[in-house]
Amino acid sequence: MGVRIITYLIYALLIMAFLSAIGVPIQNLLMAGGILTLAISFAAQTVISNAISGLFLMIERPLKIGDFVELKNSGISGKVQSFNIFSTMLLTIDGELARIPNSTFFNDIIINKTGTVARRLQVRVGVSYSDALKALDVFRSYFSKHPDVLQVPEPEIFIEDFGDFYVLIRLNLWVPTKKWYDMYKSIREEIFKVCQKYNIEIPFPIHVVYLKDQK
Question: Which pTM value belongs to this model?
Fold first, then answer.
């Protein structure tokens, strides 16, 4: 190894001597070499930072292939496609592949949306004042028998607030993580159909206009 390094140094000296003999300014080459060395050192710092972050992610294991994660500070979310020592590849909901350096990944707040067996689904619905108590009873009965709603933890269905023309009812439902997105897409349609079936009014704003006689 030492002999090889000495050989390379001799070659480098001979090349510089040749270039100097034909009039090439050696100072410029040395300056360019210094800039190149500085750039390489910065790049090496980034590579090392990503590698160390990747190592810690492998040890901590906050995610695995197939998990849907969100980087809270970066605003990026997607399904983990691949993971190596330097970077993590995410498939976003728009079908785009995002390569995230592990140093960025490690320093962000990682929210693993599929890392647990159950997730909470939160829905709010406004009903008329006259139907509010009936709506509570109907919703509690309906979701206590729903095949995709877990009963442990128990569904929470309660009056959250009072609006100008409606009572706001909040539903906190726990569902299996694998079915969460399907339920997210269908739950409001189900609630609307339940309201229609039991004649629960979902009111809309009414504006009263007074016309002033100009005569």
Answer: 0.65
